[in-house]
Amino acid sequence: MKKPRSKSEEKRQQILDSATLLFTERGFADTSMDQVAKQAEVSKQTVYSHFGGKDELFTAAIERRCVASDLKDLEVSDDQSARTILQQICARFVDLILSEDVVRVHRVCVSQAVAYPEVARLFYKAGPQQTISEVARVLEQLDARGDLVVDDSRYAATQLLLMLKGEARMRIEYNVEEKISKTEIESYTENCLDMFLRAYSSR
Amino acid sequence: MKKPRSKSEEKRQQILDSATLLFTERGFADTSMDQVAKQAEVSKQTVYSHFGGKDELFTAAIERRCVASDLKDLEVSDDQSARTILQQICARFVDLILSEDVVRVHRVCVSQAVAYPEVARLFYKAGPQQTISEVARVLEQLDARGDLVVDDSRYAATQLLLMLKGEARMRIEYNVEEKISKTEIESYTENCLDMFLRAYSSR
DNA sequence: GTCTATATACAGATAGAC
DNA sequence: GTCTATCTGTATATAGAC
Protein backbone atom coordinates (compact mmCIF):
# COMPACT_ATOMS: atom_id res chain seq x y z
CA MET A 1 0.00 0.00 0.00
CA LYS A 2 2.93 2.32 0.46
CA LYS A 3 3.58 3.99 -2.84
CA PRO A 4 3.99 0.93 -4.97
CA ARG A 5 4.76 2.51 -8.30
CA SER A 6 2.60 -0.27 -9.62
CA LYS A 7 -0.16 -0.30 -12.15
CA SER A 8 -2.48 -0.43 -9.19
CA GLU A 9 -1.31 2.84 -7.79
CA GLU A 10 -1.58 4.42 -11.19
CA LYS A 11 -5.19 3.34 -11.52
CA ARG A 12 -5.91 4.57 -8.05
CA GLN A 13 -4.79 8.03 -9.11
CA GLN A 14 -6.85 7.88 -12.27
CA ILE A 15 -9.90 6.98 -10.25
CA LEU A 16 -9.28 9.76 -7.79
CA ASP A 17 -8.77 12.32 -10.55
CA SER A 18 -11.95 11.27 -12.31
CA ALA A 19 -13.94 11.26 -9.11
CA THR A 20 -12.75 14.71 -8.13
CA LEU A 21 -13.63 16.06 -11.55
CA LEU A 22 -17.08 14.51 -11.70
CA PHE A 23 -18.09 15.18 -8.10
CA THR A 24 -17.16 18.83 -8.32
CA GLU A 25 -18.66 19.29 -11.76
CA ARG A 26 -21.95 17.46 -11.39
CA GLY A 27 -22.36 17.04 -7.67
CA PHE A 28 -22.48 13.97 -5.46
CA ALA A 29 -25.84 12.46 -6.34
CA ASP A 30 -25.54 13.06 -10.06
CA THR A 31 -22.25 11.24 -10.27
CA SER A 32 -22.49 7.47 -10.55
CA MET A 33 -19.83 4.90 -9.91
CA ASP A 34 -20.21 3.81 -13.53
CA GLN A 35 -19.34 7.27 -14.73
CA VAL A 36 -16.28 7.40 -12.50
CA ALA A 37 -15.12 4.01 -13.76
CA LYS A 38 -15.67 4.97 -17.37
CA GLN A 39 -13.91 8.32 -16.99
CA ALA A 40 -10.95 6.60 -15.30
CA GLU A 41 -10.91 3.94 -18.02
CA VAL A 42 -11.20 1.27 -15.38
CA SER A 43 -13.81 -1.28 -14.49
CA LYS A 44 -16.30 -0.51 -11.78
CA GLN A 45 -15.08 -3.36 -9.64
CA THR A 46 -11.63 -1.81 -9.59
CA VAL A 47 -13.12 1.34 -8.18
CA TYR A 48 -14.79 -0.68 -5.44
CA SER A 49 -11.65 -2.63 -4.59
CA HIS A 50 -9.61 0.55 -4.20
CA PHE A 51 -12.22 2.48 -2.26
CA GLY A 52 -14.89 0.69 -0.32
CA GLY A 53 -17.87 2.48 -1.80
CA LYS A 54 -19.24 5.78 -2.98
CA ASP A 55 -19.01 7.44 0.40
CA GLU A 56 -15.33 6.73 0.88
CA LEU A 57 -14.57 7.68 -2.69
CA PHE A 58 -16.32 11.00 -2.28
CA THR A 59 -14.51 11.78 0.95
CA ALA A 60 -11.14 10.90 -0.55
CA ALA A 61 -11.81 12.83 -3.74
CA ILE A 62 -12.87 16.06 -2.06
CA GLU A 63 -10.34 15.93 0.74
CA ARG A 64 -7.64 16.22 -1.88
CA ARG A 65 -9.08 19.58 -2.86
CA CYS A 66 -9.26 20.81 0.72
CA VAL A 67 -5.66 21.87 0.80
CA ALA A 68 -4.57 25.27 1.93
CA SER A 69 -4.90 27.80 -0.84
CA ASP A 70 -1.89 29.54 -2.37
CA LEU A 71 -2.59 32.42 -0.02
CA LYS A 72 0.00 31.13 2.39
CA ASP A 73 3.25 32.31 3.88
CA LEU A 74 2.40 35.92 3.18
CA GLU A 75 5.42 38.10 3.66
CA VAL A 76 5.45 41.68 4.84
CA SER A 77 8.49 43.29 3.29
CA ASP A 78 9.67 46.51 4.94
CA ASP A 79 10.00 48.47 1.75
CA GLN A 80 6.39 48.14 0.73
CA SER A 81 3.55 50.30 1.94
CA ALA A 82 0.56 48.79 3.70
CA ARG A 83 -1.53 49.64 0.67
CA THR A 84 0.80 47.86 -1.72
CA ILE A 85 0.97 44.76 0.44
CA LEU A 86 -2.77 44.55 0.87
CA GLN A 87 -3.34 45.30 -2.80
CA GLN A 88 -1.45 42.17 -3.71
CA ILE A 89 -3.30 40.08 -1.17
CA CYS A 90 -6.65 41.40 -2.35
CA ALA A 91 -5.88 40.70 -5.99
CA ARG A 92 -4.78 37.16 -5.26
CA PHE A 93 -7.76 36.48 -3.04
CA VAL A 94 -10.24 37.80 -5.58
CA ASP A 95 -8.64 35.67 -8.28
CA LEU A 96 -8.94 32.66 -6.04
CA ILE A 97 -12.57 33.00 -5.02
CA LEU A 98 -13.75 33.83 -8.52
CA SER A 99 -12.24 30.73 -10.08
CA GLU A 100 -14.83 28.24 -11.26
CA ASP A 101 -12.79 25.47 -9.73
CA VAL A 102 -12.92 26.83 -6.21
CA VAL A 103 -16.61 27.64 -6.49
CA ARG A 104 -17.31 24.08 -7.59
CA VAL A 105 -15.59 22.56 -4.59
CA HIS A 106 -17.31 25.04 -2.33
CA ARG A 107 -20.64 24.17 -3.89
CA VAL A 108 -20.36 20.42 -3.43
CA CYS A 109 -19.08 20.84 0.14
CA VAL A 110 -21.98 23.08 1.08
CA SER A 111 -24.54 20.89 -0.63
CA GLN A 112 -23.27 17.80 1.19
CA ALA A 113 -22.59 19.61 4.47
CA VAL A 114 -25.35 17.71 6.24
CA ALA A 115 -24.62 14.28 4.79
CA TYR A 116 -20.83 14.58 5.03
CA PRO A 117 -19.97 17.09 7.74
CA GLU A 118 -16.32 16.02 7.89
CA VAL A 119 -15.79 16.97 4.28
CA ALA A 120 -17.39 20.39 4.57
CA ARG A 121 -15.51 21.10 7.78
CA LEU A 122 -12.24 20.14 6.20
CA PHE A 123 -12.83 22.60 3.40
CA TYR A 124 -13.73 25.32 5.86
CA LYS A 125 -10.63 24.83 7.94
CA ALA A 126 -8.22 24.50 5.03
CA GLY A 127 -9.85 27.32 3.09
CA PRO A 128 -11.62 30.26 4.69
CA GLN A 129 -10.35 29.76 8.23
CA GLN A 130 -6.75 29.36 7.15
CA THR A 131 -6.89 32.39 4.92
CA ILE A 132 -8.39 34.53 7.65
CA SER A 133 -5.57 33.53 10.00
CA GLU A 134 -2.94 34.34 7.41
CA VAL A 135 -4.34 37.77 6.64
CA ALA A 136 -4.85 38.47 10.33
CA ARG A 137 -1.14 37.85 10.88
CA VAL A 138 -0.29 40.34 8.16
CA LEU A 139 -2.59 42.93 9.70
CA GLU A 140 -0.88 42.45 13.06
CA GLN A 141 2.46 43.14 11.49
CA LEU A 142 1.15 46.27 9.81
CA ASP A 143 -0.28 47.32 13.15
CA ALA A 144 3.06 46.72 14.87
CA ARG A 145 4.74 48.73 12.15
CA GLY A 146 2.37 51.59 12.86
CA ASP A 147 0.77 51.61 9.44
CA LEU A 148 -2.58 50.49 10.71
CA VAL A 149 -4.51 50.55 13.96
CA VAL A 150 -6.10 47.16 14.33
CA ASP A 151 -7.59 46.10 17.62
CA ASP A 152 -8.93 42.71 16.61
CA SER A 153 -6.93 41.40 13.70
CA ARG A 154 -9.20 38.41 13.16
CA TYR A 155 -12.29 40.59 12.89
CA ALA A 156 -10.52 42.92 10.48
CA ALA A 157 -9.26 40.10 8.30
CA THR A 158 -12.71 38.55 8.16
CA GLN A 159 -14.23 41.86 7.20
CA LEU A 160 -11.77 42.51 4.41
CA LEU A 161 -12.01 39.05 2.91
CA LEU A 162 -15.79 38.79 3.05
CA MET A 163 -16.21 42.24 1.51
CA LEU A 164 -14.04 41.26 -1.41
CA LYS A 165 -16.42 38.53 -2.49
CA GLY A 166 -18.77 41.16 -3.78
CA GLU A 167 -21.61 40.57 -6.18
CA ALA A 168 -19.20 38.91 -8.59
CA ARG A 169 -18.68 35.87 -6.41
CA MET A 170 -22.35 35.60 -5.56
CA ARG A 171 -23.29 35.57 -9.23
CA ILE A 172 -20.90 32.74 -9.93
CA GLU A 173 -22.17 30.81 -6.93
CA TYR A 174 -25.80 31.21 -7.96
CA ASN A 175 -24.90 30.69 -11.60
CA VAL A 176 -26.43 34.00 -12.65
CA GLU A 177 -25.99 34.68 -16.35
CA GLU A 178 -25.13 38.36 -16.18
CA LYS A 179 -21.63 38.26 -14.76
CA ILE A 180 -19.73 41.22 -13.38
CA SER A 181 -17.12 42.54 -15.80
CA LYS A 182 -13.43 42.40 -15.06
CA THR A 183 -13.07 46.17 -14.88
CA GLU A 184 -16.04 46.36 -12.55
CA ILE A 185 -14.46 43.75 -10.32
CA GLU A 186 -11.21 45.68 -10.18
CA SER A 187 -13.07 48.86 -9.40
CA TYR A 188 -14.97 47.21 -6.57
CA THR A 189 -11.84 45.57 -5.18
CA GLU A 190 -10.03 48.89 -5.12
CA ASN A 191 -13.02 50.49 -3.45
CA CYS A 192 -12.96 47.84 -0.75
CA LEU A 193 -9.31 48.33 0.00
CA ASP A 194 -9.72 52.12 0.14
CA MET A 195 -12.63 51.74 2.48
CA PHE A 196 -10.72 49.27 4.64
CA LEU A 197 -7.71 51.54 4.89
CA ARG A 198 -9.85 54.53 5.83
CA ALA A 199 -11.41 52.50 8.62
CA TYR A 200 -8.16 51.13 9.98
CA SER A 201 -5.55 53.75 9.13
CA SER A 202 -5.92 55.53 12.45
CA ARG A 203 -8.37 56.30 15.19
CA MET B 1 -57.82 26.29 -11.27
CA LYS B 2 -58.54 29.65 -9.74
CA LYS B 3 -58.61 29.27 -6.00
CA PRO B 4 -61.17 26.55 -5.76
CA ARG B 5 -61.45 26.20 -2.02
CA SER B 6 -61.78 22.54 -2.87
CA LYS B 7 -60.18 19.46 -1.44
CA SER B 8 -57.93 19.58 -4.45
CA GLU B 9 -56.51 22.96 -3.61
CA GLU B 10 -56.00 21.87 -0.05
CA LYS B 11 -53.98 18.88 -1.16
CA ARG B 12 -52.00 21.01 -3.50
CA GLN B 13 -50.90 23.14 -0.58
CA GLN B 14 -50.05 20.10 1.50
CA ILE B 15 -47.89 18.79 -1.30
CA LEU B 16 -46.17 22.12 -1.72
CA ASP B 17 -45.52 22.43 2.00
CA SER B 18 -44.10 18.93 2.21
CA ALA B 19 -41.94 19.43 -0.85
CA THR B 20 -40.53 22.70 0.42
CA LEU B 21 -39.71 21.12 3.75
CA LEU B 22 -38.07 18.02 2.32
CA PHE B 23 -36.18 19.71 -0.50
CA THR B 24 -34.68 22.30 1.80
CA GLU B 25 -33.93 19.83 4.56
CA ARG B 26 -32.50 16.94 2.60
CA GLY B 27 -31.70 18.42 -0.78
CA PHE B 28 -33.05 17.72 -4.23
CA ALA B 29 -31.59 14.31 -5.01
CA ASP B 30 -32.21 12.88 -1.57
CA THR B 31 -35.89 13.71 -1.68
CA SER B 32 -38.07 11.22 -3.49
CA MET B 33 -41.55 11.68 -4.82
CA ASP B 34 -42.66 8.88 -2.52
CA GLN B 35 -41.43 10.79 0.48
CA VAL B 36 -43.23 13.93 -0.61
CA ALA B 37 -46.46 11.98 -1.13
CA LYS B 38 -46.14 10.27 2.22
CA GLN B 39 -45.36 13.51 4.06
CA ALA B 40 -48.32 15.21 2.40
CA GLU B 41 -50.51 12.23 3.22
CA VAL B 42 -51.46 11.90 -0.39
CA SER B 43 -50.84 9.30 -3.05
CA LYS B 44 -47.94 9.68 -5.41
CA GLN B 45 -50.23 9.93 -8.39
CA THR B 46 -51.89 12.97 -6.86
CA VAL B 47 -48.51 14.65 -6.68
CA TYR B 48 -47.96 13.92 -10.35
CA SER B 49 -51.38 15.17 -11.40
CA HIS B 50 -50.89 18.47 -9.59
CA PHE B 51 -47.33 19.04 -10.71
CA GLY B 52 -46.03 17.40 -13.83
CA GLY B 53 -42.95 15.81 -12.33
CA LYS B 54 -40.09 16.27 -9.91
CA ASP B 55 -38.56 19.18 -11.78
CA GLU B 56 -41.71 21.28 -11.75
CA LEU B 57 -42.41 20.40 -8.15
CA PHE B 58 -38.93 21.48 -7.11
CA THR B 59 -39.19 24.75 -8.97
CA ALA B 60 -42.59 25.51 -7.50
CA ALA B 61 -41.52 24.53 -3.99
CA ILE B 62 -38.38 26.66 -3.90
CA GLU B 63 -39.85 29.62 -5.74
CA ARG B 64 -42.22 30.06 -2.84
CA ARG B 65 -39.24 30.63 -0.60
CA CYS B 66 -37.62 33.11 -2.94
CA VAL B 67 -39.68 36.00 -1.72
CA ALA B 68 -38.19 39.26 -0.64
CA SER B 69 -36.93 39.09 2.90
CA ASP B 70 -38.45 41.14 5.65
CA LEU B 71 -35.65 43.63 5.10
CA LYS B 72 -37.93 45.75 2.96
CA ASP B 73 -39.36 49.24 2.99
CA LEU B 74 -36.62 50.45 5.29
CA GLU B 75 -37.46 53.85 6.65
CA VAL B 76 -35.05 56.59 7.55
CA SER B 77 -36.65 58.61 10.28
CA ASP B 78 -35.21 62.06 10.85
CA ASP B 79 -34.92 61.76 14.57
CA GLN B 80 -32.59 58.80 14.52
CA SER B 81 -28.85 58.93 14.08
CA ALA B 82 -27.16 57.12 11.22
CA ARG B 83 -25.66 54.74 13.74
CA THR B 84 -29.02 53.89 15.26
CA ILE B 85 -30.64 53.32 11.89
CA LEU B 86 -27.85 51.10 10.67
CA GLN B 87 -27.69 49.26 13.96
CA GLN B 88 -31.25 48.13 13.48
CA ILE B 89 -30.62 47.08 9.90
CA CYS B 90 -27.51 45.16 10.88
CA ALA B 91 -29.26 43.32 13.67
CA ARG B 92 -32.14 42.31 11.44
CA PHE B 93 -29.84 41.23 8.64
CA VAL B 94 -27.67 39.14 10.93
CA ASP B 95 -30.73 37.47 12.38
CA LEU B 96 -31.93 36.69 8.88
CA ILE B 97 -28.75 35.18 7.47
CA LEU B 98 -28.05 33.10 10.56
CA SER B 99 -31.42 31.40 10.53
CA GLU B 100 -31.22 27.72 9.66
CA ASP B 101 -34.18 28.16 7.37
CA VAL B 102 -32.53 30.73 5.15
CA VAL B 103 -29.30 28.78 5.04
CA ARG B 104 -31.16 25.68 3.95
CA VAL B 105 -32.82 27.43 1.03
CA HIS B 106 -29.51 29.03 0.11
CA ARG B 107 -27.84 25.64 0.24
CA VAL B 108 -30.26 23.86 -2.05
CA CYS B 109 -30.25 26.75 -4.51
CA VAL B 110 -26.47 26.80 -4.72
CA SER B 111 -26.23 23.04 -4.96
CA GLN B 112 -28.73 22.97 -7.84
CA ALA B 113 -27.48 26.16 -9.45
CA VAL B 114 -26.19 24.28 -12.47
CA ALA B 115 -29.18 21.97 -12.94
CA TYR B 116 -31.81 24.63 -12.19
CA PRO B 117 -30.35 28.05 -12.93
CA GLU B 118 -33.77 29.75 -12.88
CA VAL B 119 -34.33 28.72 -9.27
CA ALA B 120 -30.93 29.88 -8.05
CA ARG B 121 -31.26 33.14 -9.94
CA LEU B 122 -34.66 33.76 -8.46
CA PHE B 123 -33.25 33.37 -4.98
CA TYR B 124 -30.38 35.69 -5.77
CA LYS B 125 -32.63 38.42 -7.11
CA ALA B 126 -35.25 38.18 -4.38
CA GLY B 127 -32.67 37.81 -1.62
CA PRO B 128 -29.17 39.28 -1.80
CA GLN B 129 -29.73 41.61 -4.72
CA GLN B 130 -32.94 43.04 -3.30
CA THR B 131 -31.40 43.56 0.11
CA ILE B 132 -28.38 45.32 -1.35
CA SER B 133 -30.66 47.71 -3.23
CA GLU B 134 -32.68 48.45 -0.13
CA VAL B 135 -29.65 49.19 2.02
CA ALA B 136 -28.08 51.22 -0.78
CA ARG B 137 -31.17 53.43 -0.78
CA VAL B 138 -30.83 53.99 2.94
CA LEU B 139 -27.18 54.89 2.55
CA GLU B 140 -28.07 57.41 -0.14
CA GLN B 141 -30.50 59.09 2.21
CA LEU B 142 -27.91 59.20 4.96
CA ASP B 143 -25.49 60.69 2.46
CA ALA B 144 -28.03 63.29 1.41
CA ARG B 145 -28.62 64.10 5.06
CA GLY B 146 -24.90 64.69 5.48
CA ASP B 147 -24.39 61.91 8.01
CA LEU B 148 -22.27 59.83 5.67
CA VAL B 149 -20.13 60.38 2.63
CA VAL B 150 -20.93 57.61 0.23
CA ASP B 151 -19.78 57.79 -3.37
CA ASP B 152 -21.07 54.46 -4.57
CA SER B 153 -24.01 53.41 -2.44
CA ARG B 154 -24.25 49.97 -4.04
CA TYR B 155 -20.62 49.19 -3.30
CA ALA B 156 -21.00 50.38 0.28
CA ALA B 157 -24.16 48.36 0.86
CA THR B 158 -22.53 45.24 -0.54
CA GLN B 159 -19.52 45.74 1.68
CA LEU B 160 -21.55 46.19 4.82
CA LEU B 161 -23.81 43.22 4.21
CA LEU B 162 -21.07 40.83 3.18
CA MET B 163 -18.94 41.76 6.17
CA LEU B 164 -21.79 41.00 8.52
CA LYS B 165 -21.89 37.37 7.49
CA GLY B 166 -18.76 36.77 9.45
CA GLU B 167 -17.45 33.41 10.55
CA ALA B 168 -20.80 32.66 12.15
CA ARG B 169 -22.63 32.35 8.88
CA MET B 170 -19.83 30.36 7.28
CA ARG B 171 -19.91 27.85 10.09
CA ILE B 172 -23.60 27.29 9.67
CA GLU B 173 -23.21 26.96 5.92
CA TYR B 174 -20.43 24.40 6.24
CA ASN B 175 -22.19 22.75 9.16
CA VAL B 176 -19.20 23.17 11.45
CA GLU B 177 -19.88 21.89 14.94
CA GLU B 178 -18.22 24.68 16.93
CA LYS B 179 -20.64 27.54 16.41
CA ILE B 180 -19.95 31.17 17.22
CA SER B 181 -21.60 32.30 20.45
CA LYS B 182 -24.35 34.88 20.52
CA THR B 183 -22.24 37.40 22.41
CA GLU B 184 -19.39 36.91 19.99
CA ILE B 185 -21.75 37.53 17.09
CA GLU B 186 -22.99 40.73 18.66
CA SER B 187 -19.45 41.85 19.31
CA TYR B 188 -18.46 41.20 15.71
CA THR B 189 -21.56 42.92 14.35
CA GLU B 190 -20.87 46.00 16.41
CA ASN B 191 -17.27 45.96 15.26
CA CYS B 192 -18.41 45.86 11.64
CA LEU B 193 -20.71 48.81 12.03
CA ASP B 194 -18.03 50.85 13.82
CA MET B 195 -15.58 50.05 11.08
CA PHE B 196 -18.13 50.91 8.39
CA LEU B 197 -18.94 54.24 9.99
CA ARG B 198 -15.26 55.16 10.34
CA ALA B 199 -14.77 54.47 6.65
CA TYR B 200 -17.81 56.41 5.48
CA SER B 201 -18.33 59.11 8.08
CA SER B 202 -16.27 61.65 6.19
CA ARG B 203 -13.42 62.01 3.83
C1' DG C 1 -5.90 -7.28 -9.26
C1' DT C 2 -8.82 -6.71 -12.83
C1' DC C 3 -12.39 -7.76 -15.70
C1' DT C 4 -17.62 -9.05 -17.35
C1' DA C 5 -21.96 -10.27 -15.76
C1' DT C 6 -25.37 -10.07 -12.34
C1' DA C 7 -28.11 -9.34 -7.94
C1' DT C 8 -30.84 -6.16 -5.49
C1' DA C 9 -33.07 -1.97 -4.43
C1' DC C 10 -35.36 2.01 -5.37
C1' DA C 11 -36.11 5.97 -8.15
C1' DG C 12 -39.41 8.56 -11.43
C1' DA C 13 -43.25 7.99 -13.91
C1' DT C 14 -47.73 5.64 -15.70
C1' DA C 15 -52.12 2.49 -16.10
C1' DG C 16 -56.46 1.64 -14.90
C1' DA C 17 -60.18 1.02 -11.18
C1' DC C 18 -63.33 3.84 -8.49
C1' DG D 1 -59.44 13.61 -8.84
C1' DT D 2 -57.69 10.18 -6.24
C1' DC D 3 -56.23 5.87 -5.22
C1' DT D 4 -53.43 1.05 -5.64
C1' DA D 5 -50.56 -1.54 -8.41
C1' DT D 6 -47.14 -1.64 -11.81
C1' DC D 7 -43.65 -0.57 -15.48
C1' DT D 8 -39.02 0.71 -16.62
C1' DG D 9 -34.65 2.48 -16.00
C1' DT D 10 -30.65 2.96 -13.42
C1' DA D 11 -28.12 3.15 -9.18
C1' DT D 12 -24.96 0.75 -5.70
C1' DA D 13 -22.83 -3.13 -4.77
C1' DT D 14 -21.28 -8.08 -5.43
C1' DA D 15 -19.99 -12.87 -7.67
C1' DG D 16 -17.06 -15.41 -10.08
C1' DA D 17 -13.83 -16.12 -14.22
C1' DC D 18 -9.12 -14.98 -15.71
Written description of the protein model:
The structure is a homodimer of 203-residue chains. Chain A has 203 residues and is mainly α. Chain A contains nine helices and no strands. Chain A has helices at residues 7-26, 33-39, 44-50, 54-63, 82-97, 100-111, 117-144, 153-173, 182-200. In chain A, helix 1 packs across helix 4 (54-63), helix 6 (100-111) crosses helix 7 (117-144) and helix 7 (117-144) crosses helix 8 (153-173). The longest helix of chain A has 28 residues, at 117-144. The mean pLDDT of chain A is 94. At the A-B interface, helix 6, helix 7, helix 8 and helix 9 of A face helix 6, helix 7, helix 8 and helix 9 of B. Chain B binds a DNA duplex (18 and 18 nucleotides) through residues 6-8, 11, 32-34, 42-46, 48-50, 53-54.
Please, what is the oligomeric state? homodimer
Secondary structure tally: strands of chain A: 0
Structural class of chain A: mainly alpha
- Greatest contact pair? A-B, 46 and 46 residues
Annotation field: number of helices of chain A: 9
Shape of chain A: elongated
The Rg value of chain A, from CA coordinates, equals 20 Å
Question: What's the SSE pattern of chain A?
Answer: HHHHHHHHH
Strand content of chain A: under 5%
As a percent range, the share of helical residues of chain A equals 55-70%
Poorly predicted residue ranges of chain A: none
Rounded to the nearest angstrom, the distance between the terminal CA atoms of chain A is 59 Å
How would a crystallographer describe the biggest sheet of chain A? none
Mean pLDDT of chain A: 94
